[in-house]
Amino acid sequence: MRSISTRSKVLATALALILLVGIVAVLGGSTISLIGGATALDVDGNAEIASRPPNTVDVGNDWNHYGGDAGGHRYSKADEINASNVAQLVPAWEFHTGDMTHRADYMSQSATEGTPILVGDSLIFCTPFNEVIALSPESGTLRWRFDPAIDINQDPSNQFICRGVAHWQDERSTDACSSRIFMGTNDARVIALDAKDGQPCKDFGIDGEVQTDPGMPLRWAGEFQITSPPVTIGDTVVVGSSIGDGARVAAPIGVVRAFDARTGESKWEWDPIPREPNDPAALSWKGVQPPQEGHANVWAPMTADEGRGLLFLPTSSPSPDFFGGLRPGENRHANSVVAIHGETGEVVWSFQTVHHDIWDYDLPAQPGLYSVWRDGALHDVVAQVTKTGFVFVLDRDTGKPFLPIEERPVPQNGAEGEWLFPTQPFPVNPPAIVPSTLTPDDAFGITLFDRLHCRRQIRNSVTEGLFTPPSTQGTIFYPFTGGGANWGGAAYDPERNLLIVNMSNIANHIQLIPTEDFDEVRRQFPFDEVSPQEGAPFGMKRTVLLSFLGIPCTPPPWGVLAAIDLTNGNIVWRKPLGSSVGVPIGMPNFGGPVVTAGGLIFIAATMDEMMRAFDVETGELLWEWQLPAGGQATPMTYELNGRQYVLIYAGGHSRAGTRLGDSLIAFALN
Fold first, then answer.
1. What are phi and psi for residue 102, nearest 5 degrees?
2. Helix or strand holding residue 24 (H, E)
3. Cα 541–chain centre separation
4. How many CA atoms lie within 13 A of 292 on its CB side?
5. Residues 269, 313: contact at Cβ < 8 Å?
6. Which are the catalytic amino acids?
7. 583 vs 227, which has greater pLDDT?
8. Which band of pLDDT confidence, cut at 50, 70 and 90, is reported for residue 39?
9. Given 371, 372, 429, 635, which is the most exposed site by the fewest CB atoms within 10 A?
10. How many angstroms separate the CA atoms of 560 and 558, rounded?
11. CA separation for the pair 494, 422 (Å, rounded)
């Protein structure tokens, strides 16, 4: 499903006009006036951090997975760069993929979200167009590149995206292709390459690739993609899928597919939506049997626990996003963290973060597999960040809450024919990282007129807080369907029990459109996202809640970075992430953080196109650097010959409106 849920470039307009915030200073405003008061999201960082024995978990030695390691810590033991010298960080080398030249006509459909991995003596990553490139980690010089020649005219639902590749080592062989790179493509292939030279592994599938089957005819070529990196476990490689939102009820199904890592033969398939009446989850799908709905796919990255032989999947919402009257019930396994056996695809446990989702609040990020030090012992957990601003922390063996979660009543005034679940799960601690209640009095504006415009929009909409159902009148979704958190996920410092997560703080306006009025509404709003939800009684219109100046109507900060103590769920600190004209107002952000043993957090992500370093214990900003393009990818870091490098793929994000480019930049101490 879509990661940023809007087709328009309203954020591009918003971010250009955010510079007008400088007027606030001229008019006598201040940083405090922007982020203080009842809507303040700043916590000073004075909370006590739980101590634990040093080096209790053996992670952070390498960066050979998308998330640093198989469990997605995004943590490195590299400590050459620290708080005392990070101000000396400068670019060590820069590599250009060439996309701005030979893909120039298609960059407006691209999003650079990729994180390289370090395999042997090469940095290996994929471009949004699925070229796989290997570089020298010391100099950035090209070692090899492979172009799978994807269908470039497919009109991708989720833009051209490749978040990363996976590495697999064949322990039974030393022949060619014993060290393999796996990638899923925008045209839904799974490709295996020799990690040494980038040549296709001919014994995998047909000449090194397997074409996946979406299970039904597609409405357009790009309706079905693979955008996140595969995951390997044992001798198995597993992929999810990214499927276009909003088109229809009977949409492509979100099957997770597993293949033999040597031959490419299918090992198992798992559909998050139960199709057989004897499936225990079928009781939670009370509509037409078997369910006609599709999706509930896994578009975000997965994680693996090799020791337990388990995969952890973040599933998404069923189709269509904003009407569920045809699928009564909680819709088990959708919107869930699901633990399955990597060898068989059998479900071990499942925890649902949203019951009967009609808000597009799917799970957008890799589940984190961490070991938390509490009461004198290590506890293996799964931590899942969400679009709603919540963080769910579960026991890894059972899926039961490690930090308390309770069911709370939610609004029930759905559209005609809708079916609503009476409660939703809310973590008791940590509390939501971003707010979810918006009233007309909260409306933001840099002038009286645009504030009144925002106030009017909020007053004329249904706004009853989180999980307010969509309506024909128009409903405020806060946080918006892009989060809260998104594909960047979180990072975990195992020395301090600290989870580091970045989130956005803006809102959507969602309106249901009766089917008979749909064509007229689409004609009236040709530049907005207006989708039919074919087969449901309503289409939908989705926009970001902005003033007539293009600035978010929600009060800043519009982006935050926070540290959470997973021992107890306390927020240790929470700061605005991103600035405009020197004012730390916080910016919408997509991309994630990394943490190092040097006590630093590195993150780009923000719409102001900066790379930053923060103190992990206090959240203090220590260093920043202007990137040549948007940094909507998660950085990585590694050590080589005693020198530490911090790397970011700065290629921008067309739908979010950041500057486009094709740079991979490595920073090191001057």
1. -90, -5
2. helix 22-26
3. 23
4. 12
5. no
6. 360
7. 227
8. very low
9. 429
10. 7
11. 37
